[in-house]
Amino acid sequence: MLNWNTIDTVLFDMDGTVLDLHFDNYFWEEFVPARYAVLKGLSQQEASILLRSQYAGVKGTLDWYCLDFWSAQLALDIPALKEELRHKIALRPNALPFIMALRRQGKQVALVTNAHPDSLRLKMDHTGIAEHFDHRISSHDFGLAKENAGFWQALRQQFPYEPGRTLLIDDSLPVLHQARAEGIAHLRAIRQPDSQRDALPAQHSFAQIDDFADIMTGLVTCNEQGTTQG
């Protein structure tokens, strides 16, 4: 259980945390290969194999998340393709009620994502949730992915937060490990980032959130106890 009295700031990842990762998995693993196959005169299977190899070559770097990079690499208009598929963008269950509850309790709430700024704008526009965050930050502004050394320190220069009183919720274990290395005290993983796929295996490094309703109950209970004691 989190002690909410020791947390001032909550940082949310976007894809797989606030939003269902199904959109991104479907987009990169099925939709883009289908369009690439047509462009190159390949079967979809051939296109998928080729693209998986290209994806693997830059995974963990900022290029992996960069729409400009993939548009140039694949000769496809990736932002336009995302726009075509925007109807699949969806919030994870109870994400917005939890964010709103945090704001009501006076917590500073920020969205910190590796998504390209164009993707961030599309998803904020489609879901209408931008106004519920104090800050919306793309790692592209820093030239580092969140899992890269130095990102969380660089973030503090633009967005002051106290690592010892901060909670980060993210579906990426490399991101969570890097955040821990740079001093963020409270860390939670997401158990099922993609609603159309199995939950991730339980692991010992980070507690997992299955439903934001569970952690929201703890937030409200903690606040009620603090009010009574005060």
Describe the structure.
The structure is a single chain. This protein folds into two domains: 156 residues, 3-Layer(aba) Sandwich (Rossmann fold), CATH 3.40.50; 65 residues, no CATH class. It contains nine helices and six strands; from the N terminus they run βαααααβαβαβαββα. 46% of the residues lie in helices and 12% in strands. Helix 1 crosses helix 2 and helix 5 packs parallel to helix 9. With 230 residues, it is of the alpha/beta class. The protein is globular, with a radius of gyration of 18 Å. It has a six-stranded parallel beta sheet, sandwiched between helices. The C terminus is likely disordered. The longest helix has 19 residues.
Detail the topology: elements first, then pairings.
Blueprint: E1 9-12, H1 22-40, H2 44-58, H3 67-74, H4 78-84, H5 95-104, E2 108-113, H6 117-127, E3 135-138, H7 151-158, E4 166-170, H8 173-181, E5 186-190, E6 207-209, H9 212-229
Parallel strand pairs: 1-2, 1-4, 2-3, 4-5, 5-6
Helix pairs in contact: 1-2, 5-9
Structural class: alpha/beta
Any guess at the CATH architecture of the largest domain? Answer: 3-Layer(aba) Sandwich
Question: Whole-Å distance between the termini?
Answer: 21 Å
The value of Rg in angstroms is: 18 Å
Widest β-sheet, arrangement of strands: 3-2-1-4-5-6
Got a strand count?
6
- The quaternary organization reads as single chain
Q: How do the helices and strands follow one another from N- to C-terminus?
A: EHHHHHEHEHEHEEH
Low-confidence stretches: 226-230
Helix content: 40-55%
- In CATH, the homologous superfamily of the largest domain goes by the name HAD superfamily/HAD-like
What is the class of the largest domain in the CATH system? Answer: Alpha Beta
Question: Describe the biggest sheet?
Answer: 6 strands, parallel
Q: What's the helix count?
A: 9
In CATH terms, what is the fold-level topology of the largest domain?
A: Rossmann fold
Q: Which geometry do the CA atoms define?
A: globular
- Overall residue-averaged pLDDT value: 93
Strand content: 5-15%
Number of domains: 2
